[in-house]
Structures are given as C-alpha cells and as structure tokens.
Amino acid sequence: MVHDVQTARKPVTKHISHHDKFYRCYFHPIIANASEPGAQGEVRGAVVIIEDTTEQKVLERSRDEFFSIASHELRTPLTALRGNASMMLEMYKDELESKPDLAAITADMHEAAGRLISIVNDFLDMSSLEQGHTSFSAAHIDLLPIAHKVARDFEASATAKNITITVDDPGAPVYAWADPSHTRQIFMKLISNAVLFTKEGTITVQFEHEAAHITVLVTDAGRGIAENKRHLLFRKLQQASDDILTRDSTHSTGLGLYISSLLAQGMHGKLYLKDSVEGKGSTFALELPAEKQ
Hints:
Blueprint: H1 2-8, E1 12-18, E2 21-31, E3 43-52, H2 54-91, H3 93-97, H4 100-130, E4 139-142, H5 143-153, H6 155-160, E5 163-167, E6 175-178, H7 180-196, E7 201-209, E8 213-219, H8 256-266, E9 270-277, E10 281-289
Parallel strand pairs: 5-7
Antiparallel strand pairs: 1-2, 2-3, 4-6, 7-8, 8-10, 9-10
Helix pairs in contact: 2-4, 4-8, 5-7, 7-8
C-alpha cells in the first residue's frame, strides 16, 4: 500500500479488520518541495497513521441493532393500536357523532399511530440499508405506469390543497433497469414531499432520456430551498429548514431523502436536487440506468 501511495502521489484511507479489532489506516506520500534545488517534487517517503476504531465500530453496531430490534418490537403494538382506533371510528360512528370530544380523541389516536408506524418503518428501512441487508431485484421496467399510479395515490391529498399532479407522457414506454418496488418507494417520497411543501399549484413528473440512463424530474411549486441549506437535504435525521436544531411542522423524521438516496445508489443510480428557487419551487432528479449494470 505504501508503494501504491507513493506511485499515485495521493493520500489513501483504508479500513482494515484483524480478528476482533478494526483499524482505520491513513497513507500519505511525502513529496519534496518543488522549489528545493534538484528536488522537482520527488516522493521522499510516506506517512502511515493507524487508528484503532474497534470501540467506534462496536458502538455503531450496538446502535444499529437497537434501532432494528426496537423498531420491530414497536411496529406490532402500534399496528394493533391503529387498527383498534380504525374499528372504533367505523363501528361506533353513530355513538361518536353524539360525543365530538371522544370522536376527536379517537381520530387523533388513529392519526398518531399511523405517523408512528411511518417513523418506525423509516428506521427499519434505514437500518436494513446501512447494514447491507436490503435486497435489490433489478429488471427492465417501464417507469411511466409507476409514476401514474403514485400520482393517483396522492390525488386526494393534492386536490384538497388545490394542487394538480401532472405526469408528462412521452407517448412511449420509459424503460429503466431498476427494482420496481424500490423505484416506487422513491417516487412516493418525492411526490409526497412535493405535495407536503406546496401550498397550491402544479407538480410535474417528467422523463429525460440519455444514452446510459433515464432521469426522472419531479418539480413542485413549493417554498424552495435556501442555497445554504441544500447540503443538509440528503443527510440522516436532518431537514433543510431555517433552523437546523428544530423539527418543522411536517412531523418528518428527516430520513425520507436519505433512504431514497441509498435506494437509488443500490440500483446504480443517484438522487439529487437539480434546481431550487426560493418562493417558486424545487426540482429533484432521480437517475436510473437504462441498461443492466
């Protein structure tokens, strides 16, 4: 490795495990100052720094296991709670009409349980992706019907806010090599966010064909994202809000775009913010390979 670093004249970081120990190794070439007589920037050697990261790895593994186990244990009772609240709202509808306070409490319980289940599912998805346990079954799929189906799923919530969701139809199938389930999950998050952060207007889904990939563009008419907050978009448990220390009123976990980005990478694609103008809206881009990788 030292010889490789000296030859490439660039620093390298390697993670190495040995038995039950983990190490982070830094290799950095020592290059002579080009101003020295006769030196001409020649490589004089290399510096090697070895850091024991065993404790950090153990803590990370314990954290990941905690999130996974806790999330699994929470999902069952929360599902039961939401189901019972749903039955109460349906079976005792007449009784609840005469007791508006009780009806409001039951409705709040049903909504809160649903929100908590969504949070638990995000934690489970994050844990699975980070530990490399998420499977990807890529196939040659048409993205157009997936986009139309997701747009229909959000039609009611969009209409309630005077929002129109438009999927531009190119008149031919839009084929990409991707996992249909994970692709739909990313579409759901992008359109969900677009509806969430748009007060009124139009949300458009467009497709661009390139030689090696297909790009899906989701454009909203929302509040936009300040330039100095854009670097927070795809970070775990972080929102690109005005105050990075507080959660906004959307009750978001800050995991949606992080998870979607990991899913895109797992399909040999990428997710990024293409454009955003404060007060006018944002455009997110999902790139997926057009051919098998």
